[in-house]
Amino acid sequence: MEIRMKTHLTLVLPVALLWSTAIAAAQSTPPAAAPALTAEEKAKAGYEKHTREILDALKLDDDARAAQVHDILVARFAAWKAWHAENDAWLKELWAQYDQARGTKNQTNIDNAMKPIDAVYATFKPQHDAYKAKLAAVLTPEQIETVEDVITINKVRITYNAYGEIFHGLTDEQKAFILGKLKAAREEAIDAGSMREISAFFKKYKDRIEAYLTAQGYDVKQSYKDFIAKQKAEQAAKKAAKPEKEQE
After folding, report:
1. Helix, strand, or coil here: 59?
2. What is the pTM for the complete model shown?
C-alpha cells in the first residue's frame, strides 16, 4: 500500500508542477499585438472618423438619410484622398510661391501666383460638383453649410466674428460682403488637403476683404494694431486680477 501511494504521488507531482508552470507562463505572457493596419485600412478609418464628426453635427433623425449621407461622404473622402496623392507635391510648391507673392503686398503678384493653384484645383471641380449635387439631394442648403463648416473647422463663423470685433461700425452691406467672401473661401477650402491649405484659401479671400475695407475708408493696418493692443491689455488686466497663488 505504501509503495502504491508513493508511486501515485510520484506521478501526480510532476503533472501538477507542469500545470502550474504552464499557467504562470500564460499569465506572464502579454497578449499578442493586433496586426498593424494597412495604408488602405488607415485611410478608411480616417474617412469614417471625419464622417462621424459631420453626422454628429448634422444630428439627422432619419436613419435612412443618415446612411445616404454617410456613403456620400466616405466616397467623397476617398476620391479627395486619391486626387491629393497625385497633386500635393505640385501644390506644395505652388503654395510656397503664393506665400512669397503675398509677402510683396502687391495684389497683381498675388493674383498671378494664385492662377496656377486655381488651375490645378479646376481638375477636381467635376468631382466637387458631383459630390455637392449628391448632398443637395438629401440635405437642405443649411445642412450642407454645416457639413462644410465641420470640414473647415468653422472658419467662416470665427473669421466673420473677428472682423466684427476688429472693424467697428460695419454696415449691413459691408457685413454681407465679408460673409459672402468668407463663404466663397469655404467653398474652395473644402477641397484642401490640409488645415494649412484651408487657411491659405481663407487668406486669399481675406486679402480681398481687406482691400474692400480699405476702399471703404478703413485703416486696416491700424485697426489690427488697435485690436491686438486691446487683447494684450485685456489679458494683462485678467492676469493682474488673479490672486498671486493662481498666477504662480
Report:
1. coil
2. 0.80
